[in-house]
């Protein structure tokens, strides 16, 4: 079982960001942090959570580091007995707000992994993306995490912007691989509705060659690829748990939960969530929905898909793709040979 806590507050909103986050609602922070424990208590009971049954907790956002560490104490006091002794406990962090003191206090609460939203080490590109930190601040934040004793550190990079060239991406990767990190996430810039970038036609570089070259360079730099956007000598338990369709508690505004065949959707608006943190819309998934998700997720990652998951008709298409060397079959599991084609392959199999 996994748990996810959503912190929907940001100091500033990036030009590409479509996540459920707000930059102008800071006065609600303390009240919000009080109500997440109300929902957590409810979710632990609903999921019939046993002590030490949660193998991973992920705090995402938004910007978790915009919340003082002491405000997380009540949440950790309640959830810690349910965390397994070797649970992965991750928090996202913005280099600008993740001070050494904040990192040290979060480590004391139980954080043992940090994921930094760096995006680039190029000053011009950071400004273009609307990031509020400098390359120097990003470097300092990662070194601070290492100094404090966080051994599992990840950072995010974005590629596919109009500013990207082979040399810029090579420089970003060179700096990243010189840091005390063991995981890296690389995301192609996508234009999402209701973002400043959405209606602009001058912000992306859709070169497939540039993307594939960058991914290969990450792998060659010592970060094995285990999902379309994730690379690491350490593979995130939380990420893999999602792809394996494990149950997960979703805590906070807009934090989706999943139990067996049901998804739970709390209110996205912070004010509405605070008024009633227990309100949720429930979606019941059909067997076909779960099957299709299993295929899409398995083809995007190195967990693959058990052969028995496929219908006879799907198996015929799988065998064709194996003959074309697009898929590999090993130990009764099917694996994708090209993550860039994962969605197309899944659609071909399920059509």
TrEMBL record:
GO terms for molecular function: 4 iron, 4 sulfur cluster binding; coproporphyrinogen oxidase activity; metal ion binding. The lineage of its organism: Bacteria, Pseudomonadati, Campylobacterota, Epsilonproteobacteria, Campylobacterales. It is found in: Cytoplasm. This is Heme chaperone HemW. GO terms for cellular component: cytoplasm. Keywords: 4Fe-4S, Chaperone, Cytoplasm, Heme, Iron, Iron-sulfur, Metal-binding, S-adenosyl-L-methionine. Its main location: cytoplasm. GO terms for biological process: porphyrin-containing compound biosynthetic process. Belongs to the anaerobic coproporphyrinogen-III oxidase family. HemW subfamily. It comes from the Bacteria. Probably acts as a heme chaperone, transferring heme to an unknown acceptor. Binds one molecule of heme per monomer, possibly covalently. Binds 1 [4Fe-4S] cluster. The cluster is coordinated with 3 cysteines and an exchangeable S-adenosyl-L-methionine. The keyword Heme applies. Its cofactor is [4Fe-4S] cluster.
């Amino acid at each position: 079982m996994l748990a996810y806590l959503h912190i929907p507050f940001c100091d500033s909103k990036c030009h590409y960001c479509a996540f459920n986050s707000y930059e102008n609602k800071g006065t609600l922070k303390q009240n919000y942090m009080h109500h997440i424990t109300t929902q957590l208590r409810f979710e632990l009971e609903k999921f019939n959570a046993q002590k030490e049954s949660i193998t991973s907790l992920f705090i995402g956002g938004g910007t978790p580091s915009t919340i003082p560490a002491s405000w997380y104490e009540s949440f950790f006091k309640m959830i810690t007995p349910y965390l397994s002794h070797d649970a992965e406990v991750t928090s996202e962090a913005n280099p600008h707000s993740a001070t050494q003191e904040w990192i040290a206090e979060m480590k004391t609460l139980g954080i043992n992994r940090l994921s930094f939203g760096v995006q680039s080490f190029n000053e011009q590109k950071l400004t273009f993306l609307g990031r509020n930190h400098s390359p120097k601040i990003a470097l300092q934040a990662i070194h601070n995490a290492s100094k404090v004793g966080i051994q599992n550190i990840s950072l995010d990079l974005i590629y596919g912007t109009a500013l990207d060239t082979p040399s810029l991406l090579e420089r970003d990767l060179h700096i990243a691989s010189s840091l005390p990190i063991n995981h890296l996430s690389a995301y192609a810039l996508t234009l999402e509705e209701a973002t400043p970038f959405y209606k602009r036609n001058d912000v992306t570089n859709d070169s497939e060659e540039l993307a594939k070259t960058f991914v290969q360079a990450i792998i060659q730099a010592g970060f094995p690829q285990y999902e379309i956007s994730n690379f690491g000598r350490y593979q995130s338990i939380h990420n893999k748990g999602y792809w394996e369709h494990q149950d997960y508690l979703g805590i906070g505004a807009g934090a989706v939960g999943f139990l067996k065949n049901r998804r739970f959707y709390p209110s996205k608006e912070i004010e509405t969530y605070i008024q009633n943190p227990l309100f949720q819309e429930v979606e019941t998934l059909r067997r076909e929905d779960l099957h299709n998700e299993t295929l899409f997720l398995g083809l995007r990652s190195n967990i693959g898909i058990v052969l028995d998951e496929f219908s006879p008709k799907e198996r015929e298409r799988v065998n064709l793709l194996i003959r074309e060397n697009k898929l590999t079959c090993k130990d009764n599991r099917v694996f994708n040979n090209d993550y860039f084609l994962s969605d197309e392959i899944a659609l071909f199999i399920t059509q």
